[in-house]
Amino acid sequence: MGAALIKGGEISFSTLPGAKIALLRLIAKRLEHIGRFGDYVVKKTPSSSLIAVKGPGPYVLAVEVRGPDGVLISVATRLALKLEESLGVGHDLPSDQKPGSSSHAPVSLSPNAVPVIKPVFSAEIAIDADVLRLLRHVDGLSDVRALARALGITQEEALSAIARLVRAGIVHVRTRAHEEEDRALLKLAKVAYELDERLSGPDEALRMLGSADDILRLIAANLHRGLTAVDYKRLVEEAGLDASLPSIIRALESLRSMGIARRKGEKRRSGEGVRRDIPPTAISVLLTTIH
Fold it and tell me: For the chain, which domains are there?
């Protein structure tokens, strides 16, 4: 646990363990070149989270601690604001907004495009809260128009955010989802999902999930209530998290494929094992685990 201040790629101050310094330098370099003030990168380890936030001018501030990532990001951002006040340094224009930047290469998108998270990718990008909020709604079914409506933003804003994710290699786009695919998924909206009978309770389900994202863990913690996807979506929203109904259904089906959840009344075949892995649809694409 600790903190660090990086200026121009060099460590100005650090109480972090030496093993994290090389990683932190790489993150700081990327934030320095493509980040805007307040953009951040999150790295997950088995015991803690490392949050690096782009500060004023050449500064990057990092904290490592154990706790909810949302709270840690908020704390790190407030520290970056305090640093700005102390130094009197203004915000720099990020390199990805400068004329001629290769990271701003044009991406051809239309309002009918359907963004899909790639099942496998390796990417680190500085990401702001708006892009993160949109990414949580990407379910492989909603097109740009639907995403813009769900988030209350313009189509141009949605296109810009999706283009950034496409350039980073996190999502790809395809043509509009088939109507029958939409209908088949939404038929499950009022199906009740409950904790698999082979598990002793929510605690065991949460242990199986490990460091999965907040939405997946919130749903798993409430499976004993036997709610529908619509009800789980309401719980997620009450917790201050963003998720579309199709993404909630996909999360429930991911839990079902792991042997954590089942549709109400469903009987598992004898000998069918409980999976301990998390399928790609359930993995938080921003929080990378360091092995």
Answer: 2-87 (3.30.450.30), 106-177 (1.10.10), 184-285 (no CATH)
